[in-house]
From TrEMBL:
Gene Ontology MF: a single term: symporter activity
Keyword set, alphabetical order: Cell membrane, Membrane, Symport, Transmembrane, Transmembrane helix, Transport
Source organism: Streptomyces jeddahensis
Membrane topology: Multi-pass membrane protein
Gene this protein is translated from: kgtP_2
Full protein name: Alpha-ketoglutarate permease
TM stretches of this protein: 12-30, 42-60
Subcellular location field: Cell membrane
InterPro entries reported in the protein's UniProt record: H+-coupled_symporters, MFS_trans_sf
GO-annotated cellular components: plasma membrane
Length: 70
């Protein structure tokens, strides 16, 4: 999927960014929803990134049998 020279950054940066955005804001958003009386919305807030990740995963090309770039 990524050339060897950027493979670690290509995997690590998006992972770190999503963990920071959704994992970092989850306690705040959960508390906010509860204070506003919408505590049932929190699971949907967490399901949204899961749905987005599933769409990305399903659209990724298969690269198992391709020649590796050097």
């Amino acid at each position: 999927m990524f050339p060897p020279r950027v493979r670690a950054a290509g995997i690590g940066f998006p992972y770190s960014l999503t963990v920071a955005v959704f994992g970092g804001t989850a306690p705040y958003v959960g508390t906010l929803f509860k204070e506003l009386g919408y505590s049932g919305f929190f699971p949907w807030y967490m399901a949204a990134p899961c749905l987005g990740s599933s769409v990305v995963y399903l659209r990724l090309p298969e690269t198992a049998h391709k020649q590796l770039e050097r």
